[in-house]
Amino acid sequence: MVHYIGIKGALIFGTIGYAPYAAGLYTKSRYDVDWLLLFGAAVCGISAGVFWMAEAAIAIAYPEPWNKGKALGYWLTYRLSGQIIGGAVNLGLNADRNQAGQVSYTVYILFIAIQAAGPFVALLLNKPDRVQRKDGKKVSLEILQDPWFEMKKTARLFVTKKFLLIVPFIGQAVFAEAVFFTYLSRE
């Protein structure tokens, strides 16, 4: 996708699925409507993968080599801080409620508005050729080969010894989330 629409376009595309998904959660909670939740989940599933790829590519490619560690630290800090701030907002808007198992509709609307702003915020990103680095080098963020070549090379990585050795750790990290989130979502 980056090959065809660039990293900025990929980031914009990656942000478009979150608001429909949040709107689906809202309509399911408030009006018991299923179709928007299913549609939003599908759109978010498609776009979120592109978003995660684009944000990581930007965090790795834009800074100078000697600033990559600091830039990755900032990126991960901001990324995780968003979850903490979101949880604090959720708690702040629901602290006085005595109803268990459901957040207020205000929380949904606030997060829908924030997520709907995502594509417009992504428009503020400089294209790689417009980034001015201290070392004077241009940001290199492009796919030089045919996208199918890149996909085949990526697929081959999944059967390498290094990747297969790390699969148990990936499974352990994801397993905990799957169990907890499934448990927490039960009514």
TrEMBL record:
Membrane topology term: Multi-pass membrane protein
InterPro entries: MFS (IPR011701), MFS_trans_sf (IPR036259), UNC-93-like_regulator (IPR051617)
Predominant subcellular localization, coarse grouping: membrane
Transmembrane segments: 35-60, 72-93, 105-125, 163-184
Domain of life (superkingdom): Eukaryota
Cellular component terms per the entry's GO annotation: membrane
Pfam family, one: MFS_1
Molecular function per GO: transmembrane transporter activity
Swiss-Prot/TrEMBL keywords: Membrane, Transmembrane, Transmembrane helix
Compartments where located: Membrane
Entry annotated with the keyword Calcium: no
Protein name as it appears in the record: Uncharacterized protein
